[in-house]
Design brief:
Rossmann fold, 7 helices, 36% helix, globular
């Protein structure tokens, strides 16, 4: 599942790389949805389903432990403090992500905004449902080999900005 897929380049590449896996892409902007639909038709791909709206509306309808990987690549950082409540990654969505991700599943979030990266690390590591997978700086400073660059990442790098890719594993929860 990819939330906020933009024009769909990353989602399309993942679906092409894994043709036997079903993908869900969530994007509220119609131009991005149209771009992905066109690319899917040109690539003759049938393993992507699109939710053309805010992913937070879809999350409650997804079955528990039904998603293997969740990508959130370069979400709007809402940098002003008065807008932080609009950030996609927050305690409520982290609980929803933990509910839909399989134990051992991966939450992958990328950003070029240092303040948002710190925010995500703070909330995700405090949440208890996720384990940050980084063991050395290169683990978040370099894009994972299986993840193509997005337009947003290329723009940020063109401006000389660094990008971080944070990878979290959904913890196996023990029922008491």
């Amino acid at each position: 599942m990819e939330i906020g897929f933009g024009a769909g380049e990353h989602l399309l590449a993942q679906a092409q790389r894994h043709p036997t896996i079903g993908f869900i892409g969530c994007e509220p902007y119609l131009n991005g949805v149209a771009a992905l639909l066109s690319a899917m038709e040109n690539a003759d791909l049938g393993n992507i389903r699109i939710f053309p709206d805010d992913a937070r509306l879809l999350l409650p309808a997804l079955a528990p432990a039904s998603i293997g990987r969740l990508f959130i690549l370069f979400p709007d950082p809402w940098p002003k403090a008065k807008h932080h409540n609009r950030r996609l990654v927050n305690p409520a969505t982290l609980r929803a992500f933990a509910r839909i991700l399989r134990p051992g599943g991966e939450l992958r979030v990328a950003s070029d905004h240092d303040g948002y990266v710190r925010w995500i690390l703070d909330y995700a590591t405090r949440d208890g449902g996720f384990l940050w997978l980084a063991q050395r700086p290169a683990d978040w400073r370099q894009r994972p080999a299986d993840s193509p660059a997005t337009r947003y990442q290329e723009k940020a790098m063109g401006r000389g900005q660094s990008c971080a890719t944070l990878r979290f594993e959904r913890r196996h929860m023990i029922a008491l």
